[in-house]
Amino acid sequence: MNILDKIVVDKRKEVDLRKSLIPISQLEQSVLFERKSPSLAKALRESTSGIIAEHKRRSPSKSVINQSLNVQDVAKGYEAAGVCGMSVLTDSKYFGGSLDDLLLARAVTSIPLLRKEFIIDEYQILEAKAHGADVVLLIAAILTRDEIKTLSETAKGLGLDILLEVHNEEELHKSIMPSLDMLGVNNRNLKTFEVSLETSKSLSTQIPGDFVKVSESGISSVEAIKELTLYGYEGFLIGENFMKTDNPGEHATAFIKKLES
Ligand SMILES: O=C(O)c1ccccc1NCC(=O)[C@H](O)[C@H](O)COP(=O)(O)O
């Protein structure tokens, strides 16, 4: 069993429990349910940097990254840096995150927020909306084409953007459909945890031009972004490189300044 399989086994149990504790009718009563979500895809298309900065305390590949920061300080720092959006990991067991992190970030920022989660059930999309997300991640490796269609149409119906993540050609070809906004290529091999930007480069020509292309994981330099831009990427998801520092917002500011200079 690879790490993604393990996460999904745990996630099914977690979602069943959450559903039994909080009914959908309660999620729909959240004031955030009525909020109009800004589009991350649009922000990326209009941006000169394309940075999506992540809040990530720990991960299966790196163990602890940073447990001492306040999510609201991180969110304010990222917004001040001029990022296009913020990714908030909400998985608790493997990443140390929570839906409260999303809610807290929402309370202090107006930039698009991505719920970074292992979504396998429509219920998690309703949770995302109720906690202030503007974008949801769907991971092709853990979903069938029919599931991607149903989940993305549910998200669209709630006014959310969809970032569909792939790791290889097979996942990409099975997933392409009009209800997606952004196609993300994850540079991390989830079997070996090895990171290679070659994954983004090699898949780039196969992503149809109407989707915003996002490169995810293992990005730590401005030079890498400049190179990925030549392959048509408009979005760059960065977690560890910012989160391993004492002040992720300050580092994002310096990074974006260098990128735009
Ligand atoms: O980061 C991991 O170890 C990981 C393991 C298993 C599933 C997902 C994982 N990461 C989620 C992500 O997609 C990254 O947090 C995101 O792309 C940022 O990556 P990085 O800049 O390398 O922190």
Automatic annotation (TrEMBL):
What domain of life does the UniProt record list for this protein's source?
A: Bacteria
Reaction(s) catalysed by this chain's protein? 1-(2-carboxyphenylamino)-1-deoxy-D-ribulose 5-phosphate + H(+) = (1S,2R)-1-C-(indol-3-yl)glycerol 3-phosphate + CO2 + H2O
One Pfam family of this chain: IGPS
Which InterPro entries does this UniProt record tie to the protein? Aldolase_TIM, Indole-3-glycerol_P_synth, Indole-3-glycerol_P_synth_dom, RibuloseP-bd_barrel
Enzyme Commission number(s) from the entry: 4.1.1.48
Q: GO biological process annotations for this chain's record?
A: L-tryptophan biosynthetic process
What keywords are assigned to this protein? Answer: Amino-acid biosynthesis, Aromatic amino acid biosynthesis, Decarboxylase, Lyase, Tryptophan biosynthesis
Q: What is this protein called?
A: Indole-3-glycerol phosphate synthase
Task: Write the lineage as a comma-separated list.
Answer: Bacteria, Pseudomonadati, Bacteroidota, Flavobacteriia, Flavobacteriales
